[in-house]
Write a structure and sequence with these properties.
This protein is an alpha/beta fold and about 450 residues long. The protein has helices at about 15-20, 35-45, 65-70, 85-95, 105-125, 140-150, 170-175, 195-205, 220-225, 240-250, 275-280, 290-295, 310-320, 330-335, 345-355, 365-380, 390-400, 400-420, 425-430, 435-445, and strands spanning about 5-10, 25-30, 50, 75-80, 100, 160, 185-190, 230, 255, 265, 270-275, 295-300. The chain is built from 20 helices and 12 strands.
Length: about 450
């Protein structure tokens, strides 16, 4: 952190000494009366000024008269007082006070004010994220993101709503980067796990806690200590899992699976979902107290169909540093009129497809590749989970039961390969019987299962 230039306007020498001690590391200047303070403020160069409410004996509130001067000079003004009656606080803010604190706990108050000032000045440059990190020219979306950034440094939970592919994970990462939290950004997709696996992923587990737990494993809560835990698709979480996680959020302590010793983690929650949470509440699929814990501030991202001005800037961003695309006018018109049901994710896939074409991108090329991305989106929506195009095609051709058996075989085959063909270890890892293992190998693998 760079040094700040700070003016302390205080007539008490002992109080000046206290302030100097807590502002150690910054460039500090002092003024003991209104006249000298005004002169120094007008000289410029100060980032902050701490103003004692009472300067001298004649005017009990002479410090307030300096606030318009500080505001005019662009200085972040903080009022210090021995009392905080409502009338004085309101008057101070009306005159341009940025912060107000009661004397007596300088160590905590000054540290918090310095942090807040740095965060505030950093956020003033947040417009830059719209040209790099979160690309949008949509005025409403920019306003929504700017508002969310105001809450980034505050440890309240943030809930991001919006259709799949609108940039929820990207925004969550940006909020973490602006949070000033020292720890990692740890993400988990709640819809990708069964309840038992999700519990193990979140809380971790101890060796021997269940079949296949061959060693201690740290969970996402531990990994997110002093950082951010991003719960994607939180609407898919079971009520029972919500109950367990609620306690961890409230107490910041939890028990890894198979452990009787609590662990602590100072994590901040950011969550996202495409589900209608009000509907989940009505259906009792979402606990109200859990909902209260995850939606301190709510952000709603619009689909790309309502942000048509972002389509071409996103195309440019996806090709930055690579082959630049040029579209015929009718192709460009088609792009802008397309509904983009897969949102930004669909657009990115489309750009990757057309990047292989030679010359200008024609309308025929656009229509052909958009048809492919629509097909992919239809087959792999958020509710499809792990389903791939190949699995879907196989299920259509052979039937669902056959497809499920084939998927089980592929999982067993991979486990055997990773476990060096040790079948006992594979059975334990996959939680299956010997009968199921050998039946699957006979049906799809010729029965020997020797090499995978």
């Amino acid at each position: 952190m760079d040094k700040l230039k700070i003016l302390v306007i205080e007539d008490d020498k002992l109080a000046q000494s206290v302030m100097a001690r807590h502002l150690l590391g910054h460039e500090i200047d002092f003024a003991g009366d209104k006249a000298s303070a005004e002169k120094k403020l007008n000289s410029g160069g100060y980032n902050l000024c701490f103003v004692d409410l009472k300067l001298g004996k004649d005017d009990d509130c002479s410090g307030l008269k300096l606030l318009p001067v500080a505001k005019k000079c662009g200085v972040y003004a903080v009022v210090m007082s021995s009392s905080d009656d409502e009338e004085t606080v309101n008057r101070a803010h009306a005159l341009g006070c940025c912060d107000f604190y009661v004397k007596g706990n300088e160590a905590e108050n000054i540290a918090a004010i310095i942090t807040k000032y740095i965060q505030t000045t950093t956020l003033k440059g947040s417009v830059d994220i719209f040209t790099g990190q979160f690309i949008t020219e949509d005025a409403q979306t920019r306003e929504v993101v700017r508002e969310a950034l105001k809450y980034a440094p505050i440890d309240i939970p943030i809930l991001i709503l919006g259709p799949s592919g609108t940039g929820k994970t990207c925004l969550a990462k940006i909020l973490h980067d602006h949070s000033w939290r020292e720890g990692e950004f740890v993400a988990i997709n709640c819809s990708a796990y069964t309840e038992e696996l999700l519990e193990a992923e979140l809380f971790g587990y101890k060796k021997g806690a269940f079949t296949g737990a061959y060693e201690n494993r740290k969970g996402k809560l531990s990994q997110a200590d002093k950082g951010t835990l991003f719960l994607d698709e939180i609407g898919a979480m079971s009520v029972n899992m919500q109950t367990k996680l609620l306690k961890a959020i409230e107490e910041r302590t939890f028990y890894p699976v198979g452990s009787d010793r609590p662990e602590h983690s100072d994590f901040r929650i950011i969550s996202a979902t495409l589900e209608d949470l009000q509907q989940l509440l009505e259906q009792q699929k979402l606990r109200f107290d859990f909902f209260q814990r995850i939606h301190g501030f709510t952000v709603k991202l619009k689909p790309l169909s309502q942000r048509k001005c972002d389509i071409l800037p996103l195309v440019a961003a996806f090709t930055l540093g690579r082959k630049q695309l040029s579209f015929e006018q009718d192709a460009k018109t088609f792009l802008l009129n397309h509904s983009w049901p897969g949102n930004i994710r669909e657009l990115k896939t489309f750009v990757e497809l057309v990047s292989a074409t030679d010359g200008m991108v024609t309308l025929d090329t656009v229509q052909r590749h958009i048809a492919q991305t629509i097909r992919a989106e239809q087959r792999q929506s958020a509710k499809d989970g792990f389903l791939t195009d190949e699995q879907y095609d196989y299920a259509v051709a052979k039937g669902l039961c056959e497809a499920l058996d084939r998927t089980a075989y592929e999982a067993i085959k991979r486990s055997l390969r990773e476990n060096r063909n040790k079948r006992v270890k594979t059975r334990a890892q996959m939680k299956i019987s010997a009968r199921m293992l050998y039946s699957s190998l006979r049906k799809f693998g010729g029965g020997n299962g020797r090499k995978y």
